[in-house]
Specification:
By secondary structure, this protein is mostly loops. It contains 1 helix and no strands.
């Protein structure tokens, strides 16, 4: 399939410094969009169309890729630290093992993207769309994912300490064996989410929708569920859950809690 490369602006006159993109690599990339292991750091490639581009293991640090179409692109192992990918289309892109520390992915489309083993520490994914994406074994510590849509995403084994997913839509997501210590999940929609074997110590679920969520063998020490909807939720085998952590929470007849703990039914 012919690769579409329509780049609105690529600067080929970058200063000859160790931090600038390699001129020959830029020429190669502009030619056909395939430049694995190329050095394209600090290049300006915003608003372009690079569907299916092969940039495996490329250096794209501090690169401007705002509103760029990278659907289906191969970015496996790429260094995208601090890159600007705001509003970019990364649908079905392969970002496995990519370095995305402090990367701007606000309002980006990551639907179906592969981010397994990726480094997303301190990344900005506010209002991002990442339905059906995979984040298995990824490092997402301190990432800002507020108001994003991560429905059906796979976060199994991910490191997510101090992540902020306030008001995010995370329905049917898999968090099995993830580390969500001190995570902010306030007012998030986590219906049907799987938290089996997850570390949720001091996680904040204030007014979250946890309908039919599964909390099998989880650590809930210090977790906060004030006002949460626990209808159909299974917490029967959860560790360190106390009655005081469920103030204002409600459930239904299908809610399963540890022995000695109870909550009122939610209003219809």
């Amino acid at each position: 399939m012919k690769l579409a490369i329509l780049i609105a602006f690529i600067s080929l006159s970058l200063p000859a410094a160790s931090y600038a993109a390699d001129a020959e690599d830029m020429i190669q990339f502009k030619k056909d969009g395939n430049c694995p292991s190329c050095d394209l750091r600090q290049a300006e490639m915003q608003f372009g169309t690079m569907t299916g581009a092969n940039l495996k293991n490329a250096t794209l640090r501090d690169t401007l890729l705002k509103e760029t179409n990278l659907e289906g692109a191969i970015l496996e192992g790429a260094d995208l630290r601090r890159a600007d990918l705001e509003k970019s289309n990364l649908k079905n892109a392969n970002l496995s093992g990519a370095i995305l520390r402090e990367t701007d992915l606000e309002k980006a489309n990551l639907t179906g993207a592969q981010l397994n083993n990726a480094d997303l520490r301190d990344a900005d994914l506010e209002n991002a769309i990442a339905e059906n994406s995979t984040f298995r074994d990824a490092d997402i510590r301190k990432a800002y994912m507020k108001r994003g849509n991560f429905s059906n995403a796979d976060f199994s084994n991910a490191q997510m300490t101090n992540v902020n997913m306030k008001r995010a839509v995370i329905k049917n997501a898999n968090f099995k064996n993830a580390k969500l210590k001190n995570a902010t999940l306030t007012r998030a929609d986590l219906s049907n989410a799987n938290f089996s074997d997850t570390d949720l110590t001091h996680a904040n679920f204030y007014r979250a929708n946890l309908t039919n969520a599964v909390f099998s063998d989880v650590d809930l020490k210090g977790a906060y569920f004030w006002g949460a909807n626990l209808s159909g939720t299974d917490m029967e085998s959860a560790d360190d859950l106390k009655q005081s952590q469920l103030q204002g929470a409600c459930g239904n007849k299908k809610t399963r809690l540890p022995e000695g703990i109870s909550i009122p039914h939610c209003n219809p």
